[in-house]
Every structure is written in C-alpha cells, then in structure tokens.
Amino acid sequence: MNKWWLIWTILIIGCEEAFEYEPFSGDELLVVEALITNERKPQEVHLSKTYTNLNGDVPRVTDALVAIYDGDTTIILTHDPERPGTYMTDSMQGLFGKVYTLYILHEGREYYAQATSAFGSPLDQIVIQEREDGLFQFIYQETYEPSMTEVIVSWEETDSLDQPVQERRRAFYYTLNSFDITSVFAPEKDLLIFPEGAQVFRRQYSLTQNHQDFIRSFLSEVDWRGGVFDVNAGNVLTNLTDGAVGYFSVSMVRTDTTEVTK
C-alpha cells in the first residue's frame, strides 16, 4: 500500500486532541545523560533524579561513583563541583568498534549500560538560503546514514544603547531510518534565521539502531506531540538497568564551521 495514500486517508478521519501534562507519580528514578564521542576531550556523564513539579529545580546527584570500562581500562570519573551532577573523565577519545560499559553506584544500588558506535556518514555541503528580507536561513538536508545534527548559530548585534550583544541560536535535526507518521504531522518548529556575518557551527552525531530507537521514543513524547497523530504518552526507552532512565551512547562526531556571506 502506498504510504502517502494511507496518510491522507487517516488525515481525513483524524482529529486533534489537547495534550495535558500529568505529573510524574512513580518511584524516584536516577536520570542518566551520557555521551562518549570520538573527540579527544573530557567526556561527561550527567546525573539527576526524577521529580514531580514541572517548574521545580532539577535534583542533581552529586555523591555517586561513576566509571566507564572500555574493554581494557576502567576509567573513574570525577564530579565537577562547579556543575553539580556532572561527572568527567580525563581527556579521552571514543573509538569506533569498541564496546563501552557505564557503571554507576548510588545509594547502595548499581546501574549498568553498554554502548558502541555506528560509523555514520561524512558531513554534506551546508545549505544556507538567503531570504527576501535580507536574512539567511539554515536548510537541513537529510544524511545518507542515520544521524543527529546539532546546529549552533552566533552573531553580534547592538542593543538600544548601541552596546554589542552576542546572539546565539541552537537547534537539533534528525535523520532516522524509519517512517513515523507523528513526525510528518508534528507541530512546526521555529526556523533557524540569522544575519550576514553569523557563524554556523555543525556537529553531526552517528546513531546506532538502539540510539535511534531511544531518540524516536523521546521525540514522540516531546517534539512530535501536539500534532494530528499523537500517540498515547508512554515511557521513553532506555538502555540502563532497572531503576534508571535516560541513555548511554557512543557517537562518531563530524564538525564544521561556516561564516555567512553573500
């Protein structure tokens, strides 16, 4: 069956429902954000706890033991007191083909996750389009292999007192190897628009199939909600053992910087 015929058939009979936030009411869980890249630098793991108040402060975890095993060496991470909940390695580089194990000990409980990386695809030529109003717009082009692309744009403006002000915009784009109807009819996102002279920095992360599944489940709960084809709210996938949520991943990263000129 042609997928577009299916989409328009569903569109005719579909309806839009308001999404109401339901406060978290389950047991307190450890929240893990951990990403190793092939960039030689201190790698970071961020730990916090789930909480019930949507506008409350994030409860950071500052007293955990965190380690990463690369198959040869166990690396103990150090907590950064300047950024509560952030644990850092010394300078290290994630390698393609290696399996990494994350270990966390907190309040007498152990948590584990394993991850490896996909190779990914090279960065394609950036596409920046000049608009009729004289500004410029970043145009995302899907990559050959699944990826997550972070785009940061910065430029300098002057305020009402003629003082220089640094402006900065950030956006994420995804190429996933599956068809998601909720993504096709998701609410529109703001365009990434900037003036001449801006600096555009791209970071393209490779994605394994499991990492894609996590991102897809996360986007279904956040970016893709509020559209015509919302699915029922559910739990975001994780590769961590019971009692923890979030994701531990390894990515090959490719970067470039472009100065916007006519």
Structural description of this entry:
This protein has 262 residues and is mainly beta. It has three helices and 16 strands. It has a five-stranded mixed sheet with strand order 5-6-2-1-15, with no helix packed on it. It is globular. Residues 1-25, 181-186 and 224-234 have low confidence and may be disordered.
> Biggest sheet, open or closed, and with what strands and sense?
5 strands, mixed
Mean pLDDT: 84
Largest sheet: spatial strand order: 5-6-2-1-15
What is the straight-line distance between the termini? 45 Å
Tell me how many strands there are.
16
Sequence of secondary-structure elements: HEEEEEEEEEEEEHEEHEE
What is the percentage of strand-forming residues? 35-45%
**Tally of contiguous helical segments:** 3
What are the key terms here?
262 residues, mainly beta, 5-stranded mixed sheet, 4-stranded antiparallel sheet, 16 strands
